[in-house]
Design a protein that fits this description.
With 324 residues, this protein is α+β, with helices and mostly antiparallel strands. The chain has helices spanning 22-35, 71-84, 95-98, 116-120, 145-148, 167-177, 181-193, 214-225, 238-244, 308-323, and strands spanning 12-13, 39-46, 49-55, 65-66, 198-200, 210-212, 229-230, 233-234, 249-250, 258-259, 264-268, 271-278, 282-287, 292-298. The chain has 10 helices and 14 strands.
């Protein structure tokens, strides 16, 4: 069933039709006040309308929030648009075939096995240097030369490792589209969703990822809930939406859950769900059968894995409320 509206310009707010028990909202407020003072924002959308929105610690609706590794799920969506636009014909396309004129003579021969799908599932096998490694200035390439200079430590497609594999997809988009990455994203995804204020740093050597407003983070969840359709345009195929939110490999650190195409895939209180996650407990949870989108932004002083308890408690309580 097609949605009644799209929040391109603004989200609808709570209406009586959602029948959310006021006690559930009180419980959420009490939990946040007691144990979650490190949060910046919490937003819940149900059936296309905002039913809960809270900003803490002087943050507001207009703040651009650092998404950390949540940005990887946005990158997955960007790849979905490239497939829809026929820039990418097949996820089994080899990376070296895209950059055939840029392959160095001394490249690790196992690079010839790495596909786009391996990058989406973090199974490239590339041996990335540790986070404290300093590349010499003459080797700080912010293009395909960077990964092509590295070695392969695992058979591509076999071992999940939470490494910078997805960054190569930025180079793929730029190569295939002939545009810089941010311009491609703006033209083919963000402008369609009505996302105007954002920052997306694509420099491999600088801190920072994608920064967005909380309401705009939720738009990605709404796009996926609606199988890639926005307004009258299919931005991403429903097949890719289904594929990218299904298990392709078991992910270990930091979630130890099933992993799709740059989305974590798991159940929340026996409801199938998928989510984007980032350091500090940043999260975008999507629960399709309940038509729920749950966004959390948070301090980045530590992992804050406890943030997921908020989503779990909310889903548990509305599930119990529905069966009474």
């Amino acid at each position: 069933m097609r949605p009644l509206y799209y929040p391109t310009k603004c989200w609808k707010k709570e209406s009586s039709e959602h029948n959310i028990n006021v006690e559930i909202i009180h419980t959420l407020n009490n939990m946040i006040e007691k144990d979650f003072s490190h949060l910046k924002s919490v937003l819940i959308v149900k059936n296309g309308s905002i039913i809960y929105e809270k900003y803490l610690n002087s943050y507001s609706q207009d703040t651009l929030y650092e998404t950390a590794c949540m940005s990887k799920s946005f990158l997955s969506a960007v790849i979905g648009t490239a497939i829809q636009n026929k820039l990418i014909k097949n996820l089994d396309t080899k990376v070296v075939d895209i950059f055939s004129k840029d392959v160095p003579e001394n490249i690790d021969k196992n690079f010839y096995k790495i596909t786009i799908k391996h990058l989406l599932t973090k199974t490239s096998g590339i041996k990335w240097p540790g986070p404290n490694y300093q590349f010499p200035e003459n080797e700080q390439f912010n293009d395909i030369r960077l990964p092509f200079s590295l070695k392969i430590e695992d058979e591509p497609g076999k071992v999940f490792k939470y490494k910078p594999d997805p960054h190569i997809l930025i180079y793929v988009i730029e190569k295939l589209s002939g545009m810089d990455f941010v311009s491609y994203v703006d033209n083919n995804l963000f402008s369609k969703l009505g996302i105007k204020d954002y920052l997306w740093n694509t420099n491999f050597y600088k801190d920072g990822f994608l920064s967005l407003k909380t309401r705009d983070i939720a738009k990605l969840g709404y796009l996926y809930l609606n199988n890639g359709l926005w307004e009258n345009q299919q931005l991403i195929s429903s097949e890719y939406i289904q594929e990218s939110t299904s298990e392709h490999v078991h992910g270990n650190f930091p979630e130890s859950n099933s992993y799709g195409y740059l989305w974590w895939v798991n159940d929340i209180e026996n409801h199938k769900a998928f989510h984007a996650g980032g350091f500090g407990g940043q999260a975008l949870y999507v629960i399709p059968d309940l038509q729920v989108i749950f966004v959390i932004t948070s301090n980045t002083d530590k992992p804050h894995q406890e943030n997921k308890l908020l989503a779990q408690e909310f889903i548990k309580r509305i599930t119990l409320d529905n069966v009474r």
